[in-house]
């Protein structure tokens, strides 16, 4: 590897670290980091902190507080915007600043804009290098990339299983399939998504908080419960997500089959209800996607048990899977796992993941990728 390429990757890795300072805080915008380099040394850094605030390139220029020196470079994890939104076009800011070289990670995923920013910079006489750590830069913005191209929320399903694909013992005991390090990573991904969803069975069995707990910091996304008949409102002692400090961020998805008595109980607690149609014996996910899009919710992290996992995989309902796998075997056919009685006859019938990313957590393994058949 040449020294120039090695330096480009080193500075881009720093830009990626900066982008992650705003982990989960920029929706519906992407996370972006920028590094300004003069004579081989970093002189200023910036990142996009939240929608409506300065883009990473402008934040870095503001941190520099002066014109860049002759021959300066800027490293940006995402192609600079070329359209004037709330904060102006970043291509104009880079041209006005007088950069000699602009190094880009990922291209703008929006097909209406992709590559246009690079063309504008080149037309202005700036050297443009693209594709440096492109996969890592694109992976940073899974939600944004899907939202901007599909105009639909990015639905990701997360599961924790043993090597033989079991979620829990036959008794239902599941604490814990994976270890502490893997569970801490789940907390990190909960913070990445603007919303989290679970089934009514999970609420009744585990009484989860559905918040992200990192150290002493507690953050709560929008919370969804798939509960067709509102059975989670039957118990005298209600689940904590209906009564805690974040109860106003909870929405329950039901059908018109839910009783008026249980609807009234939910309404008395100021819990929102979204009534959805049914499809193939479960709530209609297309209707759910549409409601999320209308509400501006661009991504949902669905924590699935065996039944919901089977639905999302066999129905192609999720865009992406997070599979945490522990090096354990239950070796019990009666323990809950993935799969219906579809009686597959060939390995050509498998459901696969593409664009794989993997990580290890003290023996546990995360495999994540886009779901395809």
Labels describing this entry:
373 residues, alpha/beta, 9-stranded mixed sheet, 5-stranded mixed sheet, 11 helices, 28% helix
In short:
Helices cover 28% and strands 25% of the residues.
Question: What order do the helices and strands come in, and which of them pair?
Answer:
Elements: H1 3-19, E1 33-38, E2 41-47, H2 56-64, E3 73-78, H3 90-97, E4 101-106, H4 116-123, E5 127-129, H5 134-139, H6 142-150, E6 154-161, H7 180-192, E7 195-199, H8 200-206, E8 212-214, E9 217-219, E10 222-226, E11 250-254, H9 260-268, E12 272-275, E13 278-279, E14 282-283, H10 285-294, E15 299-303, H11 306-314, E16 320-325, E17 352-361, E18 364-372
Parallel strand pairs: 3-4, 4-5, 6-15, 6-16, 7-10, 7-15, 10-11, 11-12
Antiparallel strand pairs: 1-2, 1-3, 8-9, 13-14, 16-18, 17-18
Form type = elongated
- Spans of at least 5 consecutive residues whose pLDDT stays below 50 are none
Going across the major beta sheet, what is the strand order?
12-11-10-7-15-6-16-18-17
List how many beta strands DSSP finds. Answer: 18
Please provide the ordered H/E string of secondary-structure elements: HEEHEHEHEHHEHEHEEEEHEEEHEHEEE
How many angstroms separate the termini? 37 Å
How many separate helices?
A: 11
Q: Cα-atom Rg, whole angstroms? A: 23 Å
Largest sheet: 9 strands, mixed
Q: Share of helix among residues?
A: 25-40%
């Amino acid at each position: 590897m040449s020294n120039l390429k090695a330096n480009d990757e080193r500075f881009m890795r720093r830009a990626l670290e900066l982008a992650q300072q705003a982990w989960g805080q920029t929706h519906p915008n992407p996370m972006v980091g920028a590094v300004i380099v003069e004579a081989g040394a970093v002189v200023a850094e910036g990142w996009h902190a939240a929608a409506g605030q300065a883009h990473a390139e402008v934040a870095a220029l503001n941190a520099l507080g002066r014109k860049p020196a002759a021959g300066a470079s800027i490293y940006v994890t995402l192609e600079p915007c070329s359209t004037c939104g709330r904060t102006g076009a970043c291509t104009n800011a880079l041209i006005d600043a007088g950069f000699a070289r602009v190094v880009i990670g990922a291209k703008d995923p929006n097909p209406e804009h992709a590559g246009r920013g690079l063309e504008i910079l080149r037309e202005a006489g700036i050297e443009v290098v693209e594709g440096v750590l492109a996969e890592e830069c694109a992976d940073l913005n899974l939600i944004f990339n899907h939202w901007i191209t599909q105009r639909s929320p990015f639905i990701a399903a997360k599961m924790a299983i043993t090597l033989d694909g079991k979620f829990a013992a036959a008794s239902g005991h599941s604490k814990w399939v994976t270890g502490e390090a893997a569970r801490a990573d789940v907390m990190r991904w909960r913070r990445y998504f603007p919303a989290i969803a679970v089934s009514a069975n999970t609420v009744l069995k585990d009484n989860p908080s559905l918040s992200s707990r990192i150290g002493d910091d507690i953050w709560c996304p929008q919370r969804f419960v798939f509960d067709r008949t509102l059975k989670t409102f039957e118990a005298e002692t209600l689940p904590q997500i209906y009564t805690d400090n974040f109860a106003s961020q909870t929405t329950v998805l039901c059908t018109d089959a839910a009783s008026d008595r249980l609807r009234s109980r939910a309404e008395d607690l100021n819990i929102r209800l979204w009534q959805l149609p049914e499809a193939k014996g479960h709530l209609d996910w297309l209707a759910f996607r549409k409601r999320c899009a209308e509400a501006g919710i661009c991504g949902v992290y669905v924590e699935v048990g065996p039944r919901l996992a089977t639905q999302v995989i066999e129905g192609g309902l999720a865009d992406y899977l997070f599979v945490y796998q522990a090096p354990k075997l239950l070796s019990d056919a009666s323990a809950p796992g993935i799969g219906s009685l579809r009686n597959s006859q060939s390995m050509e019938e498998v459901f696969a993941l593409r664009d794989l990313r993997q990580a290890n957590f003290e023996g546990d393994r995360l495999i994540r990728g886009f779901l395809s058949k």
